[in-house]
Amino acid sequence: MDRKFVFVLGATLAACVVYGNPAVSSITGGSSFGIFYGGSTGDVVGFRFTANADFFVTDLGVHIDTDGLQSSHMVGIWRDSDQALMASALVDPGTATTLGDWMYQSISPVQLSSGASYTAGAMYTATDSDSYVSNPTTVVTDPWITLTASVYPSAGSLGFVYPSLTNAGARGRHGPNFIVAAVPEPTTLIALGLGGMALARRRRAKR
């Protein structure tokens, strides 16, 4: 298969999932905390959610507090059934993109599955000068997700690991966030494939 065709098709498919919406678009109220346990190695906090549709995650983000984002933070999404890390990124205030009250780092798109439970978490340390918002009064989410619990780690100073403990029914610890984008319809993929093959045939005919 023509290498240029493969590149063009891959780039086109990637473009299909670049533009999306924040999983959490706004929060109000709640309490701000700099770290859960206070250990120097850091703790991961966040929220558990159910995916209400198949979708891609294209960016991972972290909350900006009143004085901006002062430090870089690891952010991840884990699948709850086996605690597998599905996506992760270091959100750097020097390179991340601001959207609303979060800064985002782009990642290679990762697909999440409808009906599955996942955890979004961000790591905070005792020295990073940033804070997350715990149990806000209101949370506005994309309809593709439903928040189910706040999450926190089983002990302090565990670093960037799956936060296994929950407060069921709480409205989340909002450090982490992510951008959701639609999975392309099969007919769209077929059309892209046919277009790419036609392009490859035309290129071969000109040789």
Automatic annotation (TrEMBL):
The chain crosses the membrane at residues 178-200. Keywords: Membrane, Transmembrane, Transmembrane helix. PROSITE patterns: PROKAR_LIPOPROTEIN. InterPro entries: Ice-binding_C (IPR013424). Coiled coil: none annotated. Residues 182-204 form the Ice-binding protein C-terminal domain. NCBIfam families: PEP_CTERM. This is Ice-binding protein C-terminal domain-containing protein. It comes from Candidatus Nitrosymbiomonas proteolyticus.
